[in-house]
Design a protein that fits this description.
The chain is mainly α. 63% of the residues lie in helices and 0% in strands. The N terminus is likely disordered.
């Protein structure tokens, strides 16, 4: 499950002008798109083509419109989750739980890679004098914010709390007893987590 809460924490709570929205939306779309694309791509690599239509860099395939609307109204949002069916995984020499962890890890890793690419692009453009504080500042700011959003989304999704990717990554290694307890209380844990994020966005 890839959600845009990381971007919300870092930037969306600071949206106070139309111009800042212009700076922010491209980075948000890039972060969500690359994150969900990576989940779908790696799931397909391991034999699950449930989300084969999500193996695209078209952001409209990854946007959850309710989540996007909520982003601007409630300052908390999410992308369209990539559906994965572990029963379709074909790497029988790898436990299914570990393949699920690999698929979950793909999203944050893709965001980190994209952040590095964006930073390299920004440095090259700065070095060539194409962008800067006094030249093409809007482009400079869009790239900078996009890089930070990708880092933020990656870090946030690595938090080991359901339904974030981090929980799926650690799930195979925390023991079945703890997994069962989390499953029994998942709704409470998730609801509490969202409430904390909402309160944080208001501070």
């Amino acid at each position: 499950l890839g959600i845009a809460l990381a971007a919300v924490i870092i930037y969306i709570i600071r949206l106070n002008s139309l111009m800042y929205m212009v700076y922010t939306i491209p980075g948000l779309l890039i972060a969500i798109t690359i994150h969900e694309f990576a989940h779908a791509l790696i799931a397909k690599k391991y034999g699950d083509d449930t989300a084969k239509d999500r193996i695209t860099l078209n952001p409209f395939k990854h946007i959850d419109w309710i989540g996007l609307l909520s982003l601007f109204i409630c300052k908390i949002g999410w992308g369209k989750p990539v559906e994965v069916d572990p029963n379709n995984f074909k790497k029988k020499n790898i436990p299914i739980e570990r393949i699920e962890a690999i698929v979950a890890l793909a999203g944050p890793v893709a965001n980190f890679i994209m952040a590095v690419i964006l930073v390299v692009i920004m440095k090259v453009l700065l070095g060539l004098g194409i962008v800067g504080l006094t030249r093409n500042y809007m482009l400079f700011e869009m790239i900078r914010i996009a890089a930070l959003m990708n880092i933020g989304m990656a870090v946030f999704n690595l938090i080991p709390i359901p339904p974030l990717d981090g929980y799926k990554i650690v799930k195979p290694y925390i023991g079945q007893d703890l997994v069962n307890k989390v499953s029994e209380n998942e709704t409470i844990i998730t609801t509490t987590f969202i409430i904390i994020i909402l309160i944080s966005s208001l501070i």
